[in-house]
């Protein structure tokens, strides 16, 4: 027994040694709220191209923003890549982001980046209503997102209020319609909606017919379609028109932290993210399904052409930093 | 015990008075240091508990009330309690029925069924969840959640009930027959009352496991306290909402744990030890054996065939069927495997070392203080991984900056989570070292440390190895704390399964899931053949 | 209460025959003991009687009603045969009172029917009713088990080694209490035991089971004084076995010429025989220089009230006595010392068996 034990201990020591050896020195630390698959795709390519290793800390956008605030000056993060602009606006408001090199903004339309030049837009996606094609017809779709809070929609709608993508929508309604209307809408949703943890859950529920419609960002449906194939897809997307708040465009952006000790490398990574090469990589990936913001790169053909979507008139500043969204969701009983 | 949570809840301290009264000599300074070290370990366990409560109390009554009495808490409470109640009942029915057929009938192949019925403990619940979700999305509701947790946790009832059935005195049933009781009345008036402690204890362990379960529910998108704590964490990092929910969940768990302690105490009292006895009589099933065999085959198919089959299925799918833009390359898989193994080894080493002083104290200086410290350590069983992890994140960022985001902190979290598991084996191992052997060594001129090194460790070594190995498996399959505390850049097998499944990339998750389950099944099997079933499954009998 | 009658009972487990042709009758209201070594089949016999196992051959009748026979097997729960298992087997989760009323209909259970009466019958105080069984000593548990078996007024009570787990002092006391309770209840009872003292002291009739067969059924005195074989003689007590020559009601052996017991005459009329004596038949006396049979004390096992003395016979010319060693049981107050030479006088009669090829 004893000798057997010592042999086991020997093997263990060997394994421990190899583990220690496997950890390599990283030079760029990325806090990412983007999907791991997308990020791995980008960082591997970046590493190959630049020779700079990237350590990734993945989390939900608001979580990472709060974490960066809590960590403050001693944060290990160099770059923050997130999926919704309000999180960047929060850090911008706290003065935690450093200026992006002007050249980086080059090909990205100005209104998709920070008003003060501290973060750059990378990708965008549209808020949509996914619907089950067997349960409901396109002509029955609501004219406005706010209609979904009305009694007629009871039991016919799914939402994911704790998904990072839902907060900007609440902020957008708040910005455009005021607090009273927003709260009324949310309370209506609480009565009407089935609640899920995230957009993946919503779109899957709609697709399998558990619920007729669901509020999601468009690319979740595209990913589901890729996973399930044409045969398994029993759902389609409805795009809100008339610049309704429901067609909100969420901008995914990136920034360099002021606390970064690797500003130069960090800026290189930012420039890479908006380069045609990276943007093309994402557009072709069959996993990201967001609109590349680089003017010269076409999105995946499964998406509605970028110039045909009709988002509400709402700039980044007006959309704000989601500071009231969580409180409103709690008040409405959705959190 | 997932072997994470799967193997964990089975842990029960060995029934106290099994040790013959030893001569307890207070060895001055040595025992002082021992008490000190053991007390520090107990404090380590209390730390996240106290910190969570402190966070919760720090909000002020008004804020706390607002956070606690919001509508969603009621909804989650209902969801959580419903799944806990349902999972406990279905696990009890499945587990007790399986145990009865294996132990009390002439079921063909019952030795194999006995192993297969316990084996799901070695499959982490979130892997089972992954399998079912990737099989059909329509399982993402209450029924799916119930299916998965029952699958994962019914062995917690099967094992103690089977042990109770095995240990049952056949004379009791025979006496009842001679007093005129037929088969059914015998079952209800003689068998069931004797199973009560095992059954109740097992049910409470299932309840505890279900309350703490995170991964399985999250992948099934079924909302409970744990998933909502995680949701809050995703929205606000270490915000108030998460710690309030964590406090409520922690209290629920501690209530379960307290009840379990109580039931275990009662069961000790209820038993009359009567030496060796005949094995209980077995019933002939006749033609009834076919439906029973079919049920066992079905159970195995659902609990083992399904997870393993789905993993194999997804391993064979490539490209189109799943979102696998990043080729699952060998280096990536190797990287994740090494991370998991490395963390597992570190966790096993630290946990076993931390269990030593308390184990020694319990073996050498039993008494009120030792029992109190032991109880405190067992409290960790009532702390869901997500609560411990959340407390440690907050603690690190507020007070322990140098340790923040370090692997060391994660390993400490593992140690807190799995100390009870290690303590059971460590204590048993040290009890095997008789004090008179130490006395003999001392009389031959060895000092205290030489005695420890040359006498105690060689004798207790295998048992300590068993403890370390159990912790190793548990760490490998741990998801929740790993998810919250993994150092930047570290990807473990469990984290990869989690990330890929959350993104519906089932084929991408498959290799990681396969390695994880392979590790867990093989090492559990190895442990059982090396140390025997009871050492691995805790003192369930 | 009723009588029990067993005819030709047989049971096999696989190829192994455990019981063969067992015939036994227990009179109504009497207590019979089945005595046998472990492995003799006595537990199987009891389990056949209870109905836990099914007999292969033979019939069992209680009060003239067949409960087991060819093509008939009344299940245990319908036999009305009370069973007191080894070590009592009280239901650990029930109080003493609930144990006692366990076999009664629900209404009587609620009313704790006859609990006080039965406790008194088995000699336990009424205050024991609410105690958990764990709080009772082994002997007390055994008595509660008897009360439980008696409560539904069964036709017959079977006791399976009920005293074997008790220590010596408790055993005698419990034995007496159980015997008294059974007598008071007028119960027909069958006690299964491997302890010959227990069988002899309790059974009005003792049946010896030997290798699956009943080899002797007799009252205790007969069994002890004239066992049917030398092996049985050794089993039911300490035995001194010597070779001898029988002739006309007397036998000549190393201890002299002794009368043969009448009851055992058939054991061997004339010629070479084995002679059975009990150690307590030997009287030892010092100072008889010219005694016919003398022995030198080899060693003494002193027990207090008596002692066992091993002796080597000396002096006699008879070649039969050469190197013969006998055991004598003597009162504790006149114990010789090793090395003493003493006279040996045999009291009472000898039992003889045909000389075997030993």
Description:
The complex is a heterotrimer of chains A (335), B (541) and C (358). Chain A is α/β, with parallel strands linked by helices and 335 residues long. Chain A is 41% helix and 17% strand. Chain A has 2 domains: 169 residues, Periplasmic binding protein-like II (D-Maltodextrin-Binding Protein, domain 2), CATH 3.40.190.10; 136 residues, D-Maltodextrin-Binding Protein, domain 2 (3-Layer(aba) Sandwich), CATH 3.40.190. In chain A, strand 1, helix 2 and strand 2 form a beta-alpha-beta unit. In chain A, helix 3 packs parallel to helix 4 and helix 5 crosses helix 12. The longest helix of chain A is centred in the first third of the chain and has 21 residues. The N terminus of chain A is likely disordered. Chain B has 541 residues and is an all-alpha fold. Chain B has a single domain, classed as MetI-like fold (Orthogonal Bundle). Chain B is globular, with a radius of gyration of 24 Å. Chain C has 358 residues and is an alpha+beta fold. Chain C folds into 2 domains: 222 residues, Rossmann fold; 117 residues, Nucleic acid-binding proteins (OB fold (Dihydrolipoamide Acetyltransferase, E2P), Beta Barrel), CATH 2.40.50. Helix content of chain C is 22%, strand content 36%. In chain C, the strands form 4 sheets. Chain C has a 6-stranded mixed beta sheet with strand order 7-8-9-3-10-11, with helices on both faces. Chain C starts with a strand and ends with a strand. Chains A and B meet through helix 1, helix 2, strand 2, helix 3 and helix 7 of A and helix 11, helix 14, helix 19, helix 21 and helix 22 of B.
Summary keywords:
heterotrimer, B: 541 residues, mainly alpha, MetI-like fold, 23 helices, globular, disordered N terminus, C: 358 residues, alpha+beta, Rossmann fold, OB fold (Dihydrolipoamide Acetyltransferase, E2P), 2 domains, six-stranded mixed sheet, five-stranded antiparallel sheet, 9 helices, 21 strands, 36% strand
């Amino acid at each position: 027994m004893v000798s057997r034990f010592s042999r086991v201990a020997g093997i263990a020591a060997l394994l421990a040694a190899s583990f220690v050896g496997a950890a390599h020195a990283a030079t760029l630390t990325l806090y990412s709220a983007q999907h791991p698959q997308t990020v791995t795709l980008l960082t591997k390519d970046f590493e190959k191209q630049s020779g700079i290793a990237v350590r990734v800390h993945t989390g939900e956008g608001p979580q990472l923003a709060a974490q960066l605030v809590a960590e403050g000056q001693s944060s290990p993060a160099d770059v923050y890549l997130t999926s919704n602009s309000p999180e960047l606006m929060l850090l911008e408001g706290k003065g935690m982001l450093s200026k992006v090199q002007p050249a980086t903004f080059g090909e990205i339309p100005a209104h998709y980046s920070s008003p003060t030049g501290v973060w750059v837009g990378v990708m965008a996606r549209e808020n949509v209503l996914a619907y089950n094609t067997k349960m409901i017809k396109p002509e029955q779709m609501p004219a406005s997102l706010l209609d979904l809070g009305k009694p007629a929609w009871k039991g016919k709608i799914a939402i994911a209020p704790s998904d990072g993508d839902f907060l900007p929508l609440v902020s957008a309604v708040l910005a455009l319609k005021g607090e009273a209307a927003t709260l009324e809408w949310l309370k209506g949703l609480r009565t009407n909606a089935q609640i899920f943890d995230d957009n993946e859950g919503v779109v899957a529920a709609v697709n399998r017919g558990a619920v007729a419609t669901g509020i999601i960002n468009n690319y979740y449906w595209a990913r589901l379609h890729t996973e399930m194939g044409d045969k398994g897809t029993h759902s389609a997307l409805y795009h809100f028109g008339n610049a309704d708040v429901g067609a909100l465009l969420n901008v995914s952006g990136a920034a360099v932290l002021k606390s970064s000790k690797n500003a130069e490398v960090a800026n290189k990574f930012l420039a890479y993210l908006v380069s045609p090469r990276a943007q093309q990589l994402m557009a072709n990936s069959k996993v990201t399904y967001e609109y590349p913001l680089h003017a010269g790169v076409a999105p995946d053909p499964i998406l509605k052409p970028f110039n045909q979507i009709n988002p509400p008139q709402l700039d980044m500043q007006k959309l704000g930093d989601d500071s009231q969204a969580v409180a409103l969701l709690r008040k409405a009983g959705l959190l | 015990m997932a072997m994470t949570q799967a193997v964990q809840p089975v842990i029960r301290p060995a029934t106290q008075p099994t040790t013959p009264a030893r001569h307890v000599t207070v060895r001055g300074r040595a025992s002082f240091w021992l008490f000190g070290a053991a007390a520090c370990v107990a404090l380590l366990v209390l730390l996240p508990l106290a910190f969570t409560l402190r966070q919760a109390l720090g909000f002020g009554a008004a804020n706390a009330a607002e956070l606690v009495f919001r509508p969603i808490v009621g909804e989650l409470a209902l969801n959580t309690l419903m799944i806990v109640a349902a999972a406990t009942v279905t696990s009890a029915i499945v587990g007790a029925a399986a145990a009865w057929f294996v132990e009390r009938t002439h079921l063909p192949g019952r030795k194999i069924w006995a192993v297969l019925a316990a084996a799901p403990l070695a499959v982490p619940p979130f892997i089972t969840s992954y399998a079912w979700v990737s099989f059909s999305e329509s399982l993402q509701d209450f029924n799916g959640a119930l299916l998965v947790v029952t699958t994962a946790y019914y062995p917690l009832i099967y094992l103690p009930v089977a042990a109770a059935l095995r240990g049952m005195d056949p004379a009791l049933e025979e006496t009842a027959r001679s007093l005129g009781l037929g088969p059914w009345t015998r079952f209800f008036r003689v068998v069931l009352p004797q199973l009560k402690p095992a059954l109740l204890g097992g049910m409470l362990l299932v309840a505890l496991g279900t309350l703490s379960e995170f991964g399985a529910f999250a992948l099934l998108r079924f909302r409970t306290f744990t998933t909502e704590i995680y949701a809050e964490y995703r929205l606000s990092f270490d915000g108030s909402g998460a710690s309030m929910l964590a406090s409520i969940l922690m209290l629920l768990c501690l209530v379960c744990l307290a009840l379990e302690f109580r039931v275990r105490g009662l069961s000790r009292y209820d038993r009359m030890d009567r030496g060796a006895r005949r094995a209980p009589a077995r019933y002939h099933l006749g033609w009834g054996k076919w439906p029973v065999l079919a049920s066992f085959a079905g159970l195995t198919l659902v609990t083992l065939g399904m997870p393993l089959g789905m993993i194999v299925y997804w391993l064979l799918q490539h490209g189109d069927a799943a979102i696998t833009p990043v080729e699952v390359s060998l280096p990536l898989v190797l990287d994740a495997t090494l991370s998991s193994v490395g963390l597992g080894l570190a966790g096993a080493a630290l946990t076993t070392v931390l269990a030593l002083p308390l184990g020694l104290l319990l073996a050498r200086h039993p008494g009120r203080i030792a029992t109190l410290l032991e109880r405190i350590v067992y409290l960790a069983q009532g702390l869901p991984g997500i609560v411990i992890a959340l407390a440690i994140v907050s603690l690190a960022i507020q007070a322990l900056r140098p340790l923040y985001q370090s692997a060391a902190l994660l390993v400490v979290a593992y140690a807190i989570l799995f100390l009870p598991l290690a303590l059971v084996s460590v204590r048993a191992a040290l009890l095997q070292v008789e004090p008179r052997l130490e006395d003999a060594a001392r009389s031959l001129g060895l000092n205290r440390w030489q005695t420890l090194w040359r006498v105690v460790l060689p004798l207790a070594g295998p048992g300590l190895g068993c403890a370390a190995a159990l912790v190793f498996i548990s760490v490998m399959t741990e998801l929740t704390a790993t998810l919250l505390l993994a150092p930047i850049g570290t990807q473990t097998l469990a984290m990869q399964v989690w990330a890929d499944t959350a993104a519906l990339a089932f084929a991408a998750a498959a290799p990681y899931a396969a390695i994880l389950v392979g590790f867990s099944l093989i090492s559990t099997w190895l442990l059982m053949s090396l140390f025997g079933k009871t050492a691995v499954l805790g003192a369930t009998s | 209460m009723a009588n029990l009658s067993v005819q030709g009972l047989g049971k096999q487990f696989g190829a192994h025959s455990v019981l063969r042709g067992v015939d036994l009758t227990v009179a109504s209201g009497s207590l019979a003991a089945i005595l046998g070594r472990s492995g003799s089949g006595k537990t199987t016999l009891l389990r056949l009687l209870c109905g836990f196992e099914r007999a292969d051959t033979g019939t069992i009748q209680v009060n003239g009603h067949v409960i087991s026979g060819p093509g008939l097997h009344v299940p245990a729960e319908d036999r009305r045969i009370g069973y007191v298992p080894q070590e009592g087997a009280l239901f650990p989760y029930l109080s003493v009172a609930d144990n006692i009323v366990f076999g009664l209909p629900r209404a009587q259970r609620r009313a704790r029917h006859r609990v006080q009466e039965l406790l008194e019958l088995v000699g336990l105080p009424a205050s024991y009713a609410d105690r958990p069984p764990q709080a009772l000593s082994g002997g007390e548990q055994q008595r509660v088990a008897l009360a439980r078996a008696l409560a539904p007024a069964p036709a017959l009570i079977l006791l399976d080694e009920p005293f074997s787990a008790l220590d010596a002092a408790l055993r005698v006391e419990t034995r007496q209490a159980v015997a008294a309770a059974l007598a008071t209840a007028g119960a027909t009872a069958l006690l299964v035991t491997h302890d010959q003292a227990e069988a002899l002291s309790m059974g009005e009739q003792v049946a010896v089971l030997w290798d699956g067969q009943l080899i002797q059924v007799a009252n205790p005195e007969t069994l002890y004084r004239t066992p049917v074989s030398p092996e049985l003689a050794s089993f039911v007590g300490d035995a001194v076995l010597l070779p001898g020559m029988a002739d006309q009601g007397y036998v000549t052996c190393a201890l002299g010429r002794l009368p043969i017991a009448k009851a055992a005459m058939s054991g061997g009329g004339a010629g070479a025989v084995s002679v059975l004596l009990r150690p307590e038949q030997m009287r030892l006396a010092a100072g008889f220089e010219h005694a016919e049979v003398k022995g030198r004390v080899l060693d003494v096992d002193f027990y207090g009230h008596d002692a066992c003395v091993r002796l080597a016979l000396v002096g006699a010319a008879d070649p039969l006595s050469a190197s013969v060693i006998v055991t004598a049981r003597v009162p504790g107050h006149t114990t010789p010392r090793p090395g003493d030479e003493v006279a040996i006088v045999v009291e009472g009669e000898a039992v003889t068996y045909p000389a075997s090829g030993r």
